[in-house]
Specification:
By secondary structure, the chain is α/β, with parallel strands linked by helices. The chain contains 24 helices and eleven strands. The longest helix has 23 residues, at 84-106. The chain is elongated and about 105 Å long.
Length: 538
């Protein structure tokens, strides 16, 4: 009896889906995730993810790590304003970590420590002070993959919600499926304070304490299976591999050299620290000074404070490096706008430049934006919010005018609508500049499609701009509507006179049908006046 050929991958997938439908009905849905049915690629061939954020100078991690803490902080100073203690602590932790990684792979017994405790980091600080930005820039500097997630996304293994192991799988994805590169990456877990469990809570907490316990093995050293047991696509790939090879090779990544950084606002932690220190910092100073005192108190946090806050002792113990970020005052926000290489001002200058407008922010405008942003109490995030609110109508109106320069000063920041009205009311503003470009585009398209050139006079162009605006139609749509039969009429004119170029006046725009009839009639009259010898033979 001939041997039966094994089923194709498509047949296996179809059978698997049919089995799931019979077993679970409509309660479980199979979602295709682009499974690769081809043979595995060579280990050194990986298509890099286009979204991986790495700088040109360090596209990949170099095991010959040669950065010093001062160099790392100097690099961060280019992008992050203030937070000197946080930048210093992070620079030291990062250098210690990657020096140990380099020594381990280099075989340097003196530099390598067998029982090395990983320098995982805990960052405290309010929103918008630069926590995420600092970690991103460090990852770019070193050239390692970076993944960020919110702690509220996860639940304990076996319960509804994402598994903390998915953080490591995401890291591999960000590394373009290069496991060797991913093992040196950085995992950043934000809103970690949401994992804290109140002491009065009884029973199982799968999204708080359960996630803390799940993170323990990851932050130290463990092996993570890259094929999730709860992922149907992963199970399908395992079935296909078994059909091809007769076995399933386990794909794992070791977390020993992955650096974990967690952060959160930790609202209420200051009260716990105050009770321990027996201090009452809030209430006897001005609000500005109270904020300064609050920031200083967070620098005093110790392990017991985090335990009292609701963290497991083992979880806190895996985070030996702890730093606190301070609130940003108006002066700090001004410095971000003025001097940071990541300033949002550069984004707005570039946005206006794309329309041929040179935008300039004066110092008094930056000062006022910073002052308003401080009152938002969302840190540097408020800078984008305010700039968008102030300049939204300018970005909408000005690209359609002939304005080429825009000075953004304090008066504009304080009264954006008033200044815009005054700007648009200037007699030398050509509102039709952008519309003229669209008219020229219509003329070019007409020539390409019909082999004849049309040209609108200056008066006709002004009439098109006015009429299309009144009709609330884009210029090209408006012209297509009023000239919808002109190609046939003009071809008739071409046959009568040989004319290939037509100049249209404003009357064509106002009365297109009558104008075309006149043009055709004139062409017949012109043809009838030709000398007899020029007429074609009967």
């Amino acid at each position: 009896m001939p041997e039966k050929n094994p089923p194709s991958p498509e047949e296996i997938q179809k059978e698997f889906e049919e089995f799931v439908r019979k077993k679970f009905g409509g309660k479980v849905q199979i979602i295709s995730q682009g499974m690769d049915f081809q043979d595995s690629m060579p280990e050194d061939h990986h298509e890099k993810d286009a979204d991986i954020d790495v700088p040109e100078e360090r596209k990949t991690f170099d095991l010959n790590f040669d950065l010093t803490p001062k160099e790392v902080k100097a690099y961060l100073d280019r992008f992050i304003i203030k937070q000197d203690e946080a930048k210093k602590a992070l620079a030291i932790a990062v250098c210690d970590h990657y020096n140990q990684v380099a020594a381990t792979y280099d075989g340097d017994e003196k530099a390598s420590i067998d029982d090395y405790s990983k320098q995982n980091v805990l960052i405290l600080g309010p929103t918008g002070v630069g926590k995420t930005y600092m970690i991103k820039q460090i990852a770019k500097l070193i050239g390692v993959p970076f993944v960020k997630a919110d702690a509220t996304r996860f639940s304990e293994t076996g319960y509804m919600g994402a598994n903390v192991d998915d953080l490591v799988r995401d890291l591999v994805h960000q590394a373009g499926d290069d496991v060797k590169m991913a093992q040196f990456g950085i995992v950043y877990l934000d809103e970690a304070d949401k994992l804290a469990v109140p002491k009065q809570l009884y029973g199982r907490d799968v999204s708080g304490r359960g996630v803390q316990l799940g993170m323990l093995k990851l932050m130290e050293e463990t092996e993570v299976d890259l094929r999730s047991g709860n992922d149907p696509a992963s199970q399908m790939q395992a079935m296909i591999e078994f059909q091809k090879k007769g076995k399933v090779e386990k794909q794992i990544i070791n977390t020993k050299h992955i650096l974990f950084i967690v952060s959160g606002a930790f609202t209420g932690l200051d009260k716990i620290i105050n009770r321990r220190l027996n201090k009452k910092a809030i209430g006897f100073k001005s609000s500005k000074n109270s904020q300064s005192v609050h920031d200083q108190i967070l620098h005093e946090a110790i392990t017991q404070d985090f335990i009292d806050f609701g963290f497991e002792p083992e979880f806190v113990g895996r985070l030996p490096v702890r730093v606190a970020c301070d609130h940003l005052q108006a002066e700090d926000l001004y410095q971000i706008l003025k001097n940071s290489e990541g300033s949002v001002i550069k984004q707005y200058v570039a946005a206006f430049h794309a329309y041929g407008i040179d935008a300039e922010f004066t110092d008094d405008a930056l000062t006022e934006i910073a002052r308003l942003a401080e009152s938002e109490k969302t840190g540097a995030r408020a800078l984008m919010t305010l700039c968008e609110k102030i300049l939204r109508d300018y970005k909408f109106e000005l690209p359609s005018t002939g304005i080429t320069k825009l000075q953004i000063n304090k008066e504009l920041v304080e009264h954006p609508a008033k200044v815009l009205r005054e700007l648009l009311s200037q007699p030398n503003v050509n509102f039709h500049k952008n519309l003229y470009k669209k008219i020229s585009m219509f003329e070019e398209n007409f020539a390409r499609q019909h082999g004849m050139t049309i040209e609108f006079s200056e008066e006709a162009r002004d009439e098109i701009c006015t009429s299309s605006s009144e009709a609330k139609q884009p210029v090209c749509d408006f012209l297509s509507n009023i000239l919808n039969s002109y190609e046939y009429g003009l071809k008739l004119v071409q046959q009568n006179t040989g004319q290939k170029h037509f100049l249209f006046d404003a009357e064509v725009v106002r009365n297109p049908r009558q104008s075309l009839e006149r043009i055709i009639r004139d062409s017949y009259e012109s043809a009838s006046k030709k000398p007899e010898e020029e007429l074609p033979d009967a």
